Amino acid sequence: MSAGDDRFDAEGYLRDRRTWTEELATEIAARDNIQLTPAHWEILQAIRRFYTQYEMSPATRPLLKYLGQELGAEKAGSIYVMQLFPGTPAKTIARIAGLPKPANCI
Q: Catalytic residue numbers?
C-alpha cells in the first residue's frame, strides 16, 4: 500500500469493502504496527458480523457491548481492546476489517 493507493480514502479506509481479504487486513494492520494474532482476528470477525447485521461500523460503546455478547465479558473490556488496537480502537478495527469509519468517531 502506497500513499497513492486508490483502494483507500484519505483516512486509510477501504473504498470498496467487497475487495477486503485477510491478506489485505494484514497489510493494513502492519501499517499501524499491529501484527494480527488470533485475538485480533476474533475481534475483526466480530465487527464484520456486526456490520453485516446492522449495516454500519460500531463506535466504541456499541462495539464493546457487541463484543461482550459475542465473545464474553473478558474480551469486551476497553483496556483489552485498546491493548490489541491502540489509539481509537473502533476506528482502527473498522479500518483493518475493511469497513467504513464509524459515523460518530472523529
A: 105
